[in-house]
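Hi everyone, sorry if this is the wrong subforum. Our group has a chain we'd like a structural model of before ordering constructs, and none of us has done structure prediction before. Sequence below.
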Amino acid sequence: MPRVSDEYMARRRGEILEAATACFAREGFHATSMRDIYRECGLSAGAVYNHFASKQEIVRALGEERLRDAQRQREALKLIEDPVEALRLLAAGTRERLVREEDRRRADRPRAEDRTPGFARRRRRASACSDRRLPGGGGADGDRRSA
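Answer:
Right subforum, don't worry. Here is the predicted structure as tokens:
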């Protein structure tokens, strides 16, 4: 069996963590299953379980990733002598991360037609009715009726 590179494994692991983050944001931790995660990232169950034995391991890895990011940020801020500048950069970085997360949540949020059976059909029907010209004050079916 061919050996894959460490970079390939790290990239796959990152894809799984991104998929898990999207699932957790969309469905919540408890409602998300491992099946949801491997469907989201388009990998087989075996490929996901090759990296993570459980959902709890994925959550741990996400927490460790966040902790490493915070530690790197802290070390970078130590190099800045002006505390006001350090706070400005910290605030800008935090805002950027929050905007990115909100954009991801919006992209992952199901549309109304995906959540509600028959919604798209009713919307098309309502749109067709409003677009139709009503000759001579007739009804929606175009017939003239006397009062």
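For your construct planning: Confidence is low (pLDDT under 50) at residues 137-147. The two ends are 82 Å apart (CA to CA).
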